[in-house]
C-alpha cells in the first residue's frame, strides 16, 4: 500500500508540474505581449505630443525671424544710403555692423541646423506627409465649397462668374493694401534718416516708381476684368436689380424679363421639372403653366420613334365613346400603351407629379404629328355626353398635359382664343418670339418648342367647365409639329366606378382644412435654390397654386397665405 501511495503521489506531482509548464508556455507570452503593446502605444502618443509642441515652437520662432529679417533689411537700406552720401561710419558703427553680421551668421547656421533636424527627425516624414494631407484636404474642402456655391442655384454658372469676380477684386484689394503698407514703411524709415543731409532721391524714386507701376498694373487688371463681364453676368445683375435702377446716359435701360418667354429664355439651358418650377402662363381662364425642358431631347426622340410606325389619321371621341373621323382635326396620331417601356413610365409619373394627381388617373398618351396646313380647331377637352365621363371610365377629363416633341419652324402654335395676354406678353425682349402666325392674333398663344410642356385645367374646383380652356392647334406653315398629349381624369382611368365621382381638391389647403401649406413636394428644394425671388409669380404670388387662390410655396418662401 505504501508503494502504491508513493507512486500516486509522484504521478500527481508530475501532472501538476506539467500543467504549470503548459500555463507558462501558453498564457505568459500573451500577457507580456499585451504589456509591451500598451507601453509602445504610450511612447508613440508621447512622441507625437512632444513633436506637435516642437512644431508650434518652430512656427513662432520663424515668425520672429521674419520680423528680424525685415528690420535688418531696413537697416541695410539705411547703410546703403549713407554710403551713397559718402558718409564715413565711425568705429562704433563698424563694430556694431560686425556684431550684427556675426549674429546673422549664427542665426542662419542655427536655422539651417534646425531645418536639418526637422528633416532628419524620426517622425519628420510622417509630419510632412500629414501636413501635405491636411493642405490637400483644406484645398479639397475649399473646392467643394466653391462647387456648392457654383451649382447651388439654377443660375449656377452666373453665380460662379460673380463669385470669381468678387475673389479677383478681393485679391486686387489685398495687393493694393500690401503695396501701401510697404510704401508707408519705407517713408517712415527714410524720415528717420539724417534730415540735415541732402537726401539722394535715386533709391527712393526707384521704389516709388515700382510701387506706382504695381498699382497701375493692378488697376489695369481690375478695369480689364470689368470689361470682360459676359452676358450671363449682366443677366444676373439684372435679376438682382429687378428693374429698380434707372439707366445712365452711357447705358440704356434694361430690366429683368417681364414676358413669359423672356423669362423662359433664361431657363433654356437648365434642367426642367422637378429641378425647377414651372412658369405661370395664365392664372385664370385658363389656369395654365409652362414647363421649360420638361422632357430631354432624347426622351422626345424616343416618343416620336415609338409612334412613327403606327401613325394614322387622327380621330375624335364620339358620343358613344368610340373614335370617329373628324374634319376639325387633320393630324396623324396613335396611342401608346401605358408604361410600354421604362422611359414612358418615368414620363407618366413625372406628369402626375407636375399636375399633383395620381398616376392611374392619366389616360394612355397620344402622339400627334401635324404636317404643313394641318391643324386642330378650337375645342374643349371636357366631355359633353354622358358615356365618356361616366364613373366607370374615371369621370371627366380635368386637366391636360401637352408636350412639344419638336421645334416647329413656323406656325403650329397652341392657341387659347378666350385667354388674355398679359400687358408684358409681347414686350421686345431677348428670347420672346415676335413672329406669330395669323392664327394667334387673338387670344393666348404657346410656341411649339422641343421639350416644353403646357399644363392646363378644363375644370374648376367646383366641377364646372372652365370656359377659358377652349384651345386649338394653329395650322403648320413650315416644318412639322409633334406633340404628346396626356389627359387626366378626376379618378382612375377605366376604374369601373359605379357611383358619381367628386372633383378632387385642386389645393392642399382644401385637404388640410384651410391650413397654410406648400402645394408641391419640391417647394423646399426650390426655395433653397433661390426660386422664391427668381420666379415670384409662381412661388409667392396668389396665382401660383392650382386653384389660383394662393402662392405655390408659402411655407418654404416664408410668405402668408391669403385669408380664407
UniProtKB/TrEMBL annotation:
Residues 86-152, 188-207, 215-235 are annotated as: Disordered. InterPro entries: Oxoglu/Fe-dep_dioxygenase_dom, P4HA-like, Pro_4_hyd_alph, Pro_4_hyd_alph_FE2OG_OXY. Residues 140-150 have a biased composition (Basic and acidic residues). One of its GO terms (cellular component) is endoplasmic reticulum membrane. It catalyses: L-prolyl-[collagen] + 2-oxoglutarate + O2 = trans-4-hydroxy-L-prolyl-[collagen] + succinate + CO2. It is an enzyme of class 1 (oxidoreductase). Residues 91-108 have a biased composition (Acidic residues). Its cofactor is L-ascorbate. PANTHER family: PROLYL 4-HYDROXYLASE ALPHA SUBUNIT, TRANSMEMBRANE PROLYL 4-HYDROXYLASE. Belongs to the P4HA family. This is procollagen-proline 4-dioxygenase. The lineage of its organism: Eukaryota, Viridiplantae, Chlorophyta, Mamiellophyceae, Mamiellales.
